[in-house]
Write the C-alpha coordinates for this entry.
Amino acid sequence: MIISTDRSLLSLCVPTDIQKELAADIKRLRLEVHQWKRDTLAKRSGVPSATIKRFEHTGEISLRQFLMLVHALGMLNRLEKLLHTDVEGMALDDVIKLENNHARKRGVK
Protein backbone atom coordinates (compact mmCIF):
# COMPACT_ATOMS: atom_id res chain seq x y z
CA MET A 1 0.00 0.00 0.00
CA ILE A 2 1.35 3.43 -0.90
CA ILE A 3 0.69 6.01 1.80
CA SER A 4 2.80 9.11 2.19
CA THR A 5 2.48 12.65 3.49
CA ASP A 6 3.43 13.72 -0.04
CA ARG A 7 0.00 14.18 -1.62
CA SER A 8 1.32 13.01 -5.00
CA LEU A 9 1.91 9.53 -3.49
CA LEU A 10 -1.33 9.24 -1.49
CA SER A 11 -3.10 6.10 -2.66
CA LEU A 12 -4.99 3.21 -1.15
CA CYS A 13 -4.19 0.96 -4.11
CA VAL A 14 -1.35 -1.49 -3.97
CA PRO A 15 0.70 -2.36 -7.06
CA THR A 16 -0.66 -5.91 -7.20
CA ASP A 17 -4.21 -4.55 -7.41
CA ILE A 18 -3.22 -2.44 -10.41
CA GLN A 19 -1.44 -5.42 -12.01
CA LYS A 20 -4.59 -7.50 -11.74
CA GLU A 21 -6.76 -4.68 -13.11
CA LEU A 22 -4.44 -4.23 -16.09
CA ALA A 23 -4.50 -7.98 -16.76
CA ALA A 24 -8.31 -7.97 -16.61
CA ASP A 25 -8.41 -5.00 -19.00
CA ILE A 26 -6.10 -6.73 -21.49
CA LYS A 27 -8.21 -9.89 -21.31
CA ARG A 28 -11.40 -7.87 -21.81
CA LEU A 29 -9.91 -6.11 -24.86
CA ARG A 30 -8.77 -9.45 -26.26
CA LEU A 31 -12.13 -11.14 -25.82
CA GLU A 32 -14.79 -8.44 -26.10
CA VAL A 33 -13.28 -5.90 -28.48
CA HIS A 34 -11.16 -8.06 -30.78
CA GLN A 35 -12.76 -11.46 -30.12
CA TRP A 36 -9.33 -13.07 -30.26
CA LYS A 37 -8.22 -16.34 -28.77
CA ARG A 38 -5.12 -16.18 -26.61
CA ASP A 39 -3.12 -17.80 -29.44
CA THR A 40 -4.20 -15.05 -31.85
CA LEU A 41 -2.94 -12.35 -29.50
CA ALA A 42 0.27 -14.34 -29.04
CA LYS A 43 0.89 -14.44 -32.80
CA ARG A 44 0.06 -10.76 -33.28
CA SER A 45 2.10 -9.54 -30.31
CA GLY A 46 5.06 -11.93 -30.25
CA VAL A 47 4.35 -12.72 -26.59
CA PRO A 48 4.06 -16.47 -25.91
CA SER A 49 0.55 -17.74 -25.21
CA ALA A 50 1.70 -19.21 -21.87
CA THR A 51 2.97 -15.79 -20.79
CA ILE A 52 -0.36 -14.20 -21.71
CA LYS A 53 -2.19 -16.88 -19.73
CA ARG A 54 0.03 -16.29 -16.68
CA PHE A 55 -0.47 -12.52 -17.02
CA GLU A 56 -4.25 -12.85 -17.23
CA HIS A 57 -4.29 -15.01 -14.08
CA THR A 58 -1.63 -13.33 -11.93
CA GLY A 59 -0.89 -9.90 -13.39
CA GLU A 60 2.80 -10.84 -13.70
CA ILE A 61 4.55 -9.86 -16.95
CA SER A 62 7.60 -7.91 -18.05
CA LEU A 63 7.13 -4.29 -19.06
CA ARG A 64 8.36 -5.03 -22.59
CA GLN A 65 5.89 -7.87 -23.05
CA PHE A 66 3.07 -5.77 -21.59
CA LEU A 67 3.84 -3.04 -24.12
CA MET A 68 3.90 -5.62 -26.92
CA LEU A 69 0.40 -6.77 -25.90
CA VAL A 70 -0.90 -3.22 -25.66
CA HIS A 71 0.56 -2.45 -29.09
CA ALA A 72 -1.04 -5.53 -30.67
CA LEU A 73 -4.39 -4.47 -29.19
CA GLY A 74 -4.02 -1.00 -30.73
CA MET A 75 -3.77 0.87 -27.44
CA LEU A 76 -0.11 1.86 -27.26
CA ASN A 77 -0.73 5.50 -28.17
CA ARG A 78 -3.17 5.85 -25.27
CA LEU A 79 -0.69 4.31 -22.85
CA GLU A 80 2.09 6.59 -24.06
CA LYS A 81 -0.01 9.66 -23.22
CA LEU A 82 -0.52 8.46 -19.66
CA LEU A 83 2.81 9.72 -18.35
CA HIS A 84 3.00 12.94 -20.32
CA THR A 85 2.81 15.93 -18.02
CA ASP A 86 -0.40 17.88 -18.28
CA VAL A 87 -0.46 21.10 -16.27
CA GLU A 88 -4.25 21.46 -16.52
CA GLY A 89 -5.71 20.95 -13.07
CA MET A 90 -2.33 21.20 -11.31
CA ALA A 91 -1.77 23.67 -8.50
CA LEU A 92 0.23 26.73 -9.57
CA ASP A 93 3.04 25.85 -7.12
CA ASP A 94 3.36 22.40 -8.70
CA VAL A 95 3.53 23.89 -12.21
CA ILE A 96 6.26 26.30 -11.08
CA LYS A 97 8.22 23.42 -9.51
CA LEU A 98 7.86 21.45 -12.73
CA GLU A 99 9.17 24.36 -14.79
CA ASN A 100 12.07 25.02 -12.38
CA ASN A 101 13.13 21.36 -12.30
CA HIS A 102 13.03 20.96 -16.07
CA ALA A 103 16.82 21.15 -16.59
CA ARG A 104 17.70 18.56 -13.93
CA LYS A 105 18.65 15.22 -15.45
CA ARG A 106 19.41 13.18 -12.31
CA GLY A 107 17.22 11.97 -9.50
CA VAL A 108 17.39 13.15 -5.94
CA LYS A 109 19.53 11.11 -3.54
Summary: The domain at 7-83 is CATH 1.10.260.40 (434 Repressor (Amino-terminal Domain)). The longest helix spans residues 15-33. The helical segments are 15-33, 38-45, 49-58, 63-72, 76-82, 92-100.
